[in-house]
Amino acid sequence: MNDGPPQDAARPGPGAAGDDGADARDDAFLAQLAGLRRSMAQSVIETGERVQETVEDAVRRGRMTRKDAQELAGAIVAASKRQSDEIRQELEALLERGRRLGRRAEPAPEAEPVAIPIERTPDAVRTLPIERYDELTAVLVRKSLKGLSPDELRAVRTHEASHAKRKTVLDAVDRLLDA
């Protein structure tokens, strides 16, 4: 991953000494932590089983061949494992570096908590009548449609039409609305 500063940036130059060197190390350490945070914010964590289920759904809907689905799922899982390993290695290196810095430094005053912004889900998604809608396969969504009111069905249809556009889901909603 190339989001953080180069490893050499963490080491003070030959002329750095005293507090200036410590400040430079602290700044480099914080920059690396920020880079790791960016990497984690841009990452998607998904199980191999969920990836397989999603591509199988695409095969069932006729959107791709089984062979293409298997290749795609394998590529996604392999890339995810590599990215997870890279993030884990960076985190372990930063934790070790933090322990080493902590042993050399005098106890720091208690730091204020750092606020990490959490990406909020748009209101339209939160108001869907089916919990965790965007994580469900078309089959599970169709099973969840039974018992929804016409207004709830219209909300699901609007969301589906502007997002995944799964024909089987849209058709199922339309059938229930017409009934």
Strands, helices and their partners?
Elements (H helix, E strand, L loop, with lengths): L17 H25 L5 H13 L5 H39 L18 H4 L11 H7 L5 H13 L4 H12 L1
SSE string, helix = H, strand = E?
A: HHHHHHH
Question: Given the C-alpha coordinates, what overall shape results?
Answer: elongated
Distance between the termini: 53 Å
SS field, number of helical segments:
7
Descriptive account of the structure:
- Helix 6 packs antiparallel against helix 7 (167-178).
- The protein has 179 residues and is mostly helical.
- The protein has two domains: 7-104; 123-178, no CATH class.
- The longest helix has 39 residues, at 66-104.
- Residues 1-18 have low confidence and may be disordered.
- It is elongated and about 75 Å long.
- The chain is built from seven helices and no strands.
Using brief descriptors, characterize the structure shown:
179 residues; mainly alpha; 63% helix; 0% strand; elongated; disordered N terminus
Can you describe this structure in just a few lines?
The chain has about 180 residues and is mainly alpha-helical. The chain has helices at about 20-40, 50-60, 65-105, 125, 140-145, 150-160, 165-179.
